[in-house]
Amino acid sequence: MVDFEEVDSYISTNKIDVIVNCAAYTHVDKAEDEPKIADEVNHFAVRNLGLIAKKHQLKLIHISTDYVFDGNSGIPYAETDAANPQNAYGISKLNGEKALLKINPKNSIIIRTSWMYSEFGSNFVKTMLRLSDEKEQIKVVSDQIGSPTYAKDLALAILQIIPAINNEGFQIYHYANKGQCSWFQFAEAIMKIAQRNCLILPITSADFKTKAKRPKYSLLNTDKIQNTFNLEIPNWVDSLKECILKLNIKS
Asked: What is the pTM of this model?
């Protein structure tokens, strides 16, 4: 949870122009067992940030997720498409979006993204590389489609967006790297680029049991954010190569 008084005091005594909220509860399966905790972080903490931003008349950029959608679309999701989350994590993230719309509609910007990874923290790329050191083969679902997003690309996009923000009011944008793939294809690309010999085997979602239901198709349409802020978004394969190169240097 956001400590309202502590954050409010910090903003009051420091020169802050924009709040960028990257914090989130992202344990999709675990959220099924502890939905209240997920909601505290992804909903109520976001609400508190919205209240603080409104009090100080600050712009708030909040990162959300493709998992607010049900995955039944056959075309990339636009910002105007109806949200229909299929799991507790997605519900908590949508609750956060709704809170901002209600509390601070004049100064809130939501950026939905998908399949985030980087050379830092815990994510799919690092998990696949770790497993490739431990196993000769890995089974990965092949019937969930989306686009991996390199965190560095999103961060640079946000830095480009901030100076261009005017008084558009409440806005939702979609940002993900260009192109699309399944988790299986993503894993195959990781092994190929990293030159690992681990075999990736495709399986269906039905064969890979998880507590939380995932959207089968969660590709995001990024036309709005590209056209509004004149962004050039890299292809996911190119960004993956950059990330793995940095991981190799780091190790």
From this structure: 0.95
Extended strands (E) in the chain? 18-21, 59-65, 108-113, 116-117, 137-141, 145-146, 149-150, 171-174, 181-182, 199-203
Find all residues with CB under 8 Å of 64, minimum gap 6, and list them: 93, 94, 96, 97, 110, 111, 112, 113, 172
DSSP 8-state symbol, 163: G
**Residue pair 171/106 in contact by the 8 Å Cβ criterion:** no
Angstrom distance (rounded) from CA 83 to CA 159: 27
pLDDT digits (tens, 9 = 90+) for 14-55: 999 999 999 999 999 999 999 999 999 999 999 999 999 999
| List of long-range contacts for 195-199, beta carbons under 8 Å, 24+ apart | 196/129, 196/132, 197/132, 197/136, 198/131, 198/132, 198/135, 198/136, 198/137, 198/138, 199/136, 199/137, 199/138
Q: Catalytic residue numbers?
A: 89
DSSP secondary structure string, 94-146? Answer: HHHHHHHHHH-TTSEEEEEE-SEE-SSSS-HHHHHHHHHHH-SEEEEESS-EE
pLDDT at 250 over 70: no
Give Cβ neighbours of residue 36 (< 8 Å, ≥ 6 apart).
Answer: none
Q: Which residues pair with 145 in a beta bridge?
A: 182, 217
- Which domains occur in the chain, in start order? 4-250 (3.40.50.720)
